[in-house]
Amino acid sequence: MAVIIKTAEEIKTLREGGKRLATILAKVAKRVAPGVTTHELDEYAYTLIKEMGDEPAFLNYKPHGHHIAFPASLCVSVNNEIVHGIPSKRKTLKEGDIISLDLGLKHKGLFTDHAVTVPVGKISKASEQLLRATKEALVVGIESARGGNTVGDIGYAIEKFVARRYGIVRELSGHGVGKKIHEDPYIPNYGKKGKGQKLIPGMVVAIEPMLNIGSAGIISLSDGYTIKTIDGSHSAHFEHTVLITEGEPEILTK
Ligand code: MG
User: Fold this and answer.
1) What's the 239 CA to ligand 1 centre distance in angstroms?
2) Total-model pTM
3) Label partner for 43 (CA 20 to 30 A): which of 20, 23, 71, 233?
């Protein structure tokens, strides 16, 4: 499958969709507090998306190789869960947790993807540092996402920044986005300078580092979706949808 270069018209729509998604996710993040269930967060995200006349991208989405469709709009991954956690009425947040909120939006037929990890009340110093480092890793990755660079340059920059302080999840990666929620190319959070797919102005990509306090190893839960750290350590995840240009990358989900 080849990479898709978006037209000026499509970029306009993605810019509007990205802005809406950022507004919605910020509102959902504000609801995060001890005593709130992950189901409530999902329901709130769904309501906000529908109010704007858009569609949640993950609800009923069936990724390649999955037998069951994802049952919610929002992915909620708490503490040692890395990504793709399923919201539940039985899962109540408590002081000291960290939660990754990952949301995809379909606006006028085009997709954007965005994630943040937020603290639940007061969190440990180690969790605070993890959140800061993962957020910075995303900034560093985006900085390298320029026309003429390659996918390898993005991964290289993230890996160099992390400098073995955290485990970088390798089995999951960023991706092209726009016409579909997942498009080519895959964008690993590690890589070699100058290697891989060349970045071309008009490409739209989701960059999403996932860092673990402990080892990089992961396990999948029997629910078919939730991915956890193998050693039980906390994990964080930040993601933006970004337009590749000749110069400064443009963050669409802000
Ligand atoms: Mg994504």
Assistant:
1) 7
2) 0.97
3) 233
